[in-house]
Amino acid sequence: MLYLHAKLLRLEHLVDFLHTASIRSPEMIAILIGVGFVVGFVNTIAGLASAVSYALFMAMGMPVSVANGTTRPGVLIQFFVNSLLFKKAGVLPIRTATRIGIPIALGSVVGAQLAAHVNPQIFELAMACSLPILATLLYVDTRAVTGNISDKVSLTPIKFIVFILVGCYGGFTHAGVGLLIIFASVFLLGADLLRANAIKQFAVVVYTPIALTVFIINDKVNWPVALIYAVGNVAGGYLGSKMSINKGSKFIRWSVTLCVVLISFWLIYKQF
After folding, report:
1. Residue 242 exposed, middle or buried by CB count within 10 Å (0-12, 13-18, 19+)
2. What is the pTM of this model?
3. CB 101 within 8 A of CB 210
């Protein structure tokens, strides 16, 4: 009991520090860049880590909407740099990524509107149940249907609708949308995991400016925090991109699996 009490006191002191410390203090700059680095790295190789940045920003006293908006500049810059690295490595089919980015962007607008009227638990529980199944399928031998896709991949009406739904989820709750893009790229477009991850990077670049514009219009971005945090995002994303490209699909598969396990437990736990 004494050990638990001591831990709770330390956590309380940390929250008090985050809530009262100056953004310009060396400690806060180090925390923002450090967390940004970790989030940028994990989001590049798989997804989910944005939940950590939301928790940090809310502990600093930001409303959830401002915390959400404050992550977006870093996301946009990070994934733009990531896309350049994947393109340079020859694993990013730009036209395909752009084509799927468009329906995802459309869906994100719809999802943002739904967020004001629909209980998020519906989407979150559905994702918590479906993600482990999708992750398991990644271990099935998919060599017959996946590989080095080109920019001539056909985006049928059914596939277009699926990517709209992916975007709808992203606009609704955001957490884990990168994983959904990876899964959809593998199972619908026939991409291997490395190229699916590359497609995810550029698709995020396509649709993030729309969401960021909405947050800016509604004054929901804390710019001093966002710009410091973005430094860590870019650095972490750079390392994550290099590791994904060098280590390939096996590394991404295990990273995605770990993130799926964590996000599934988190989405179920937060319902109670």
Report:
1. middle
2. 0.80
3. no
